[in-house]
Amino acid sequence: MKDFFMKTLGKYLPNLKVENKPLKMEDLSLHYRSLYSISKMTLDGSPFLAVALKDKVPSIGPREFKKHISVFEEKYKLPVIWCLQDLAYEKIQRLMEYGFNFIIDEKVVYLPTLNSIIKIEKPLHKSKASKVSPLGINVLIEQLLEKSIEGLSKINIAKKFGVSQMTIARALETLISNNLCSEEKNGIEKVIRFSSEKELWNYIKENIESPVIEVIYTKDHIIGLPLSGISALANNSMLADDHVPTMAISKKRLTEFKNIEVTSKDEAHLSLEIWNREPIFKKEQTINVIDAYLILKNNQDERVQIALEDWLNRYKFN
Prior knowledge:
36% of the residues lie in helices and 20% in strands. The chain is of the alpha/beta class.
């Protein structure tokens, strides 16, 4: 491990004095012994525990480092420096947010404990943020409302939403590129880990638009669709509903109703919102509070905004 240190530190911080002493790991569990090698490093007189992933060990993410660092620091009573061969840009950013000491082979030296600045051999590629897909938005909403996506693998998330693994992978990639979640190794499988609820909610408020792409009016009575818009809000508050109730349907599912009779608003029995994604609805056959917010946030009626705020305040993420 000293060679690793000398190659990178010697390149950027040639005057830093480095001493190395390998440590035994018998007192650590087999799990940690299989993942890491460790040594005691002294940098300019300051002792550290240098922890490196062994060869052929699958990539480990920042959340796992955060869990494991407490084990090492408790056992050896030394601050940890992670020694890594490579790491994705988003994970580097997360390690910095956590304030971890780490070195990436010939690319990055980040030692906040020693007040060392970051050194970069060549620009690290940051994946371009892409627009979150409609399915990705539903994944975010489900996670915020139910906390039911965190820790699941792609295949289990695909089953939950009734889509193929390839489809959910594309949706999750749009979330990952926006730093809303990451994929991390957990035993023999990779699972999804999300950013904080506050970060997810702020992203939705600032970047996600209403799912409604069109509104049509009909004399038909359609069973099985969720209440939306003012009707959903009225169902969750003391607000009175409109004379014509509002329901939601995805553009894809609308094709199942080939004989809907479209009419004017004055003659309608139903206002039908057509969405660019499948509505997520919960109890009492209404859309969820987040989509209600996206649809009604620009409504100028003060009573609507008061009722909407009251509904949102029932949830911890707000």
